[in-house]
Amino acid sequence: MTDTTKPPVWVLSYTHRHGDDISVHETEVAAKIAACAIIIEWLYEIEEELDQEKLCKLVSEGMYDEAIKTWEEIQSCASWERETIEINQREIATLGQAIQGLQQVLEDR
Description:
The protein is an alpha+beta fold. The protein is built from four helices and three strands. The chain has a three-stranded antiparallel beta sheet, with helices on one face. It starts with 8 loop residues before the first strand and ends with a helix.
């Protein structure tokens, strides 16, 4: 069996008052679309109708970066507990790399 490097993944983390929601996506765009889906799902919590309309327009036009940035700006002024969305690129360890890491931990004991 050949141990090859896996392509990177993008991890979306949505932190809110009830905890963290984490999902893994094959592409950065997919992670941004998922983040925008969260924003739209909770849109009713945003008090200003103009902000709601702006976010809907940005998402519907595929302007995901701008939608996330706008949501973050709205969050910073909100009266409720702050929520955050983060998207980070990560590497997935192959099975061989995981076994090597486990062996190293066991040897260090």
